[in-house]
Here is the input.
Amino acid sequence: MPTVIMPKMGDGMDEGTLLRWLKEVGQDVTEGEPIAEIETDKVSIEIEATEGGVFTKMLVGEGDTVPVGTPIATIGEEAATGAADEATSAEPAAAEAAPADAEAATTTNGREPAKREEAAVARAAPAEATQSAAAPVSQPPTADDAKSEQQEGAAPAAGSGERLRASPLVKRLAAEHGIDLQGVAGSGPGGRIVKDDISHLLTGASPAAAAPAAEPAAEAPADAAPTRPAAAPAAGSTRPPGTPRELSRIRRSTGRRMAESKRNAPHFYVTSEVDMAPAAAFREQVNSQVTDDASKVSFNDLIVKACALALRDFPNLNTSYEDDRLIDHPSIDINVAVAIEGGLIAPFIPNADEKSLGTIARMAKDLIGRARNGGLTPEEFQGGTLTVSNLGMYDVEEFIGVINPPQAAILAVGSIKETPVVANGKIVVGQRMNITLSADHRVSDGAEVARCLQAIKHFLENPMLLALS
Amino acid sequence: MPVMTYREALRTAMADEMERDESVLMLGEDIGVYGGTHIITDGLLERFGPKRVIDTPIAEGGFTGAAIGMAMCGLRPIVEMMTWNFSFQAADQIIQNAAKLRYFSGGQTSVPMVIRGPNGGGVQLSAQHTHSLEGFYGHFPGLKVVSPVTPADAKGMMLTAIRDPDPVIFLEAGALYGTKGDVPEGDETVPFGKARVAREGTDVTLIAYGRQVNLLLRVADHLAENEKVEAEVIDLRSIRPFDADAIVESVRKTHRAVVVQEQWRWFSVASEVAAIIQEQAFDDLDAPVERVSGAEVPAPYARNLETAAFPSEEQIVSAVRRALYREG
Here is the structure.
């Protein structure tokens, strides 16, 4: 009977959350039909049946987070829909523990699974057990392994047939900081994960200090039962305790990546003022002759193109720093940071230097729109070689960005301001914009980054070049 | 603060207590006329007279038993073992009587006595005269066991030992009698059951007592200079009662521990320390607790072999490197 597994939707994905089932047990499904919606670090995606048949069983409940490769559902032939399947599938939550236990039952050779109920689940699903044990992605762990890994809050990952080895300290820190130890390479004897192996994942702040800023308790809904005890007030404080608020996946993911960037990449910053009057005139001229709204060019589209063209002359900044080496990227792909509900995502425009302004405008609108609707695919935001972060619409003088790892730099764009400037001996109204490049000092130095910034500025102040190149 | 030798610190403590409390007296082989084999009691016979500084026959079982009787009757005897190796002759008195009389009598009597002398090796006295007995005596409920390393602690712990209501096994580091250090004047006691942080550090906790503490301090300097490792050195001082809190607190900070002792590994103080760490600081350990102990052979006489049989700087550095995963 075919098993549907939690798919890997990109290199960075270790686990996924089942948001909701789109099919009910007993319904027919055809190959390619969506059966469930899952959420990864960044996006929500529908997953499709790989074969047609009858949707026989849900192996995880809605809201559950499971590692990549974990069986989440089974699809059977019509005749295979037996009473046993229905009995267990009626309670998806109870079936949550089934995969590991079912695997255990096939491999323990007479050893009793830990709990009778689990054994019952395993017996109720013999076919699935065989299927998953035979699947190449999951070496069956033993009953003990499954238990210990559940205690750590980390179910077995695909390909892991051995007990997770980690020092007691590492296990405690992992639990406190919500670190998934699967996939962490252990440098100790026998692959034991030791503190040094995870220290880069620790924020440095103690878990208590890292708790979200306290909100006055009075503002919390009276019936909101916190899943964890409210943070204790500071000793001697008469103020009411704060209400802990769980971080969304995207918040956690953003936080982890930004902390990693600030920790590992020595940032430095170079700022310049750009005369945006020519760009404004150019944009007005172009847009007045474009009839479809999708092709209308934004200032950001001009900046994306300017960055892409500048990077042609500064290939050293179109790189990633990885393991004491620089990776030269063959194409120039510019990410656009988009604020979305609860976080940040940066889809990219591939080969932006080779694309016309109209193409860039259409692609950017599409990507930004879908980013806000949660409709991006991982291929659209995992990658990119330089990021543009634009807060121009929020009336900011200037700001500095945190590099989007493993990229070498990020451009932070402030608002275009009307300001008095001297031209030909007279004070006139100019349009000026501050841009700041944050760069990784492991990759480059101030002089090169300043010259790259000047190149971006040159393209923006001579916008015809954006159309020509 | 006056500087004195470990030897002078012990003598000062005992003489001060004999001045202060006339129930304090001492007995042992050659402690009077000869001034003590290790010159600890030199001059005390002249000061306090033969009734309070008693030269005994070579009969440890006899004079230890006599001292136990004195203690039961209200005196506070200090018994010198010429070396702790000879205490085997008196082990029956120490273990069967001194350790148990308070318990047997339901608290009606106690045995306030100190048994002291040099413990451990390092001075080429060969197998029968080279034992480290802290694990052995530390095993028995009813005995208190201490092992100071600094002259200050030698004095302060001797004052505490003489005033203690129970038998105290006072293990002196024979190789340290000539070492000098600052010793506070006056009635500065050092409590039992309190370890001393001999050096603060963040990366690994090194634990010992007696003369191994000095070895650890040398190792810690070496580690700081050559390995960029800041080791914390804990001097247990008191084997029973035992300061588990100090060790646990340090391991919570460093996440690694290396326990060093001259005595043999099996059923030893280091075994107990390692067990306490895993019981009370399990979730703070990043590596197994390392032990460095004496070689599992009777102590050799030959200088080179004796040196090889005791923990060395190289062995301890190697254990630290293992605890830091820098060496397999």
Notes: The first helix of chain B runs from residue 6 to 20. Chain B touches chain A through nine residues (CB under 8 Å). The mean pLDDT of chain B is 96. Residues 196-323 of chain B form a domain with the Rossmann fold fold (CATH 3.40.50.920).
